[in-house]
Amino acid sequence: MTVHPSISVITPVYKGVRFLRKTFASMQAQTFQDWEWILVDDESKDGSGALVDEFAASDARLRVIHQKNGGTSVARNTALAAARGKYFAFLDEDDIYHPRYLETLFNLAEKYQSDITGCKKLMFDEATEPKFPDDGPSPNTEVKVADRAGICEWLAGLKAQIPCEVWLNLYRHDVFVDLPFPPGVRVEQDFRWHYTALPRCRKYVRIDWAGYAWRATAAGGWLNPRPESMLSHIETFRTLATTLPQAMGLNERQLKGFLDGFDVSAHVNLFLPLKNGLRLTREESRALRTGIRSLYSIGIDLRHKLHFRKRLLWNLFMLTGCEAFVRI
């Protein structure tokens, strides 16, 4: 293994023993071989720590760090502090890289001298295996390149999505390595870290190709929303909406588009879980409604996505806390 590999791949490990062998196989299958893989065992109790030690014994490019449980953000920060690559990437313990994932993003980053280089994802579930649609991107696969002004335009169309999941992106080490993930944030650490990183980005490249397979597990926050995750969404929306526009220098038109994108996200993450039957305690309902009102005050208003009747029923929920109105 080279002292300074081209890419450091970061994986927090916690209760992932069911999937780690397939994740390991996807790393071994990479066409690009100049990497180190830093696995941080976050005090797993299911044998994951012993399994990654077994992997490391078979490949000198693997480095395992065992630490006291601190959560995903703390584990990623530990790995960032140890990373030696020119770039760093992320791979969750239950996901899978396309064999050409690292090769593709590294070559694009080098070609365009980009600070962030991203792709698309392929979703699969616990009962299936991912089936990537091709052997890799073709010469005709669309590549979008944005400088600082272009990134602002991407933010203005936020509802069209920048790939904010960190595992969809390759990051230049010397630009981002000292930016910590937020400790104590239990959900959407990716979202918050990535958008906090954007003001440092001078050039962002995206390829219209799915190189990462994301396993949608039933226990995951996206498929199993909880009141605490909804409150975390609110805090993330509020933090980014009040800091990122100024940090990026968005103009009035771009700011409107940016906040419109958050309206869409708020609808998905706050309205739909209640509509689909999520139950709240009285305290949770009060905290949620207080948080939603705080978003209204900064221009994030999911009511824009509701038809007139639904808007009235939502307003009744906001007044009374009765979830039945949302589900009518």
Morphology: globular
Question: Could you tell me the radius of gyration in angstroms?
Answer: 21 Å
CATH architecture of the largest domain: Alpha-Beta Complex
In the CATH scheme, the class of the largest domain would be: Alpha Beta
Number of helices: 12
SSE string: EHEHEHEEHEEHEHHEHHHHH
Would you tell me which CATH topology of the largest domain applies? Spore Coat Polysaccharide Biosynthesis Protein SpsA, Chain A
| Percent range of helical residues | 40-55%
Structural class, from secondary structure content? alpha/beta
- SS strand fraction: 15-25%
Ends: how far apart?
60 Å
Low-pLDDT residue spans: none
Multimeric state: single chain
Q: What is the fourth-level CATH superfamily of the largest domain? A: Spore Coat Polysaccharide Biosynthesis Protein SpsA, Chain A
Largest sheet: 9 strands, mixed
What is the number of beta strands?
A: 9
Number of domains: 2
Overall mean confidence score, pLDDT: 92
Description:
This protein has 328 residues and is an alpha/beta fold. It folds into 2 domains: 7-216, Spore Coat Polysaccharide Biosynthesis Protein SpsA, Chain A; 227-327. Helix content is 44%, strand content 18%. Strands 1, 2, 3, 4, 5, 6, 7, 8 and 9 form a 9-stranded mixed beta sheet that branches. Strand 1, helix 1 and strand 2 form a beta-alpha-beta unit. The N and C termini lie far apart (60 Å).
